[in-house]
Amino acid sequence: MSMLPPAFAPMTFGSALRAAAGRWPDKVAIRMGAQELTYARLVARASALRNAALAMGLAPGEKAAIVARNCTEYFEVAAGLPDAGVALATINARLAPAEIAAALEDCGARLVIVDAPSAAALAGMELACNPKILTLGPAYEAFLADAPAPAALPDIAEWDVWTIPYTSGTTGKPKGVLLPHRSRMVLALICAAEFGCFGPDDCFLAMTPLNHGGGLGLAAAALATGGTVEVMDRFDPLAVLERLHRGGISGLFMVPTHFQMIFALPEAERARFARPPLKAILSNAAPLPQAMKARIVPFFGEGILHELYSSTETGLVCNLRPQFQLTRERCVGTPFPFTEVKICREDGEPCEPDEVGEIWTKSPLLFNGYWQRPDQTALAIRDGWVSVGDMARRDADGFIYIVDRKKDMVISGGVNIYPREIEEVLLHHPAIADIAVVGVPDERWGEALHAFVVAAPGGPQPDVGEIAAFCAGRIADFKIPRRLSLLESLPRNSNGKVLKADLRALATA
Question: DSSP state, 285?
Fold first, then answer.
């Protein structure tokens, strides 16, 4: 049985900030507009919040939550409350009030820290967990100012739960993902080694929602490695391009929707911001279409785009490094350090090279399970390996290709069809700006393919016949969608993932 060594300090977000403050107390840790917070001040405020939480009676093992848009306080909350042994649920402030209330009830939050719009949305709502609701601003500042120093601090283990982000719910009800301190601190070290934009001399631009695992995890990695995080409250394509053009940003995290918004800008407006001084762009959350990569690399420059395969549950799994972006299509690269990957058939046996199967991963970056979902945890974790239901193949060189979500696979006439392959082909069609393909019930074939298309602005609207002609010779005939609906935009969650369950419901309505 393993035992801790006699001298051991757990890896936590709080301990990482204290170490950075010991090295550079007056260095700017967080910047948002004209507001700046040094490492010393960040640690002092996080410690005051920890003390206040303990003074109000919060005990290790209990839960708290934050419901707020991006702000500087997000980081002190993510350090201070877990330092009291209290796991922090990070809940999307853009959800409907009933959805926010459901997540708060699910985690049983005793303390909820909210921004002003969220406070208004929750006003008058009765919650069975009966939390203390604290609004950022004067009430929150008074809570910190009145905090007495505790007689003793709780012992925090690095495998204790740090945060509980809720899954995006593209295939069902959102689940609370239990993320331990250790997995995200090891992730920070891997980021420093892999991307070259996480370190004491770097500034990371955080403009994706901090309630998401990747949004907070990558920003926390920048702080844990001693860098600066510059925060934006939302993604605005022109504002982001202007900020990158001014310099001083080393890296940022973007999702495919962000790139779509950038390339939707008029060419003349966009061209003056080409090739900003950056070390790395990390793309994740949804597959990055090959047609989009062909625009990204010339615009932003060679040698900086990384496409990651990851999930909230697994952390980082694979990275397609910049030199392969235009030569290995639909590829997510090779596994990260300390990460093992296997691709298996339904019976658990390993797949042969280029055979499609379910992808499983084992690493120090994994989650602890789903909060109060033992059945879902048992499906995701088997013998120390984790799967989130993605189908993949590995070629003879060891490169991994994500084929599609297991739940999005279509079985038509007994044949497995992966919609992502079809979408990748049709995104090369000049009249198509965006597309999603789903399977719908069909009496003859079991399932049939239905394409939801967003037409390119100013061009003709494609029809089924035109799509069939374009696909001929590019994909097999049985993979060509025979049903089509035109939409102004595809339904997506706040992290940019297409809500295919909504499209299936629309197709069958």
Answer: S
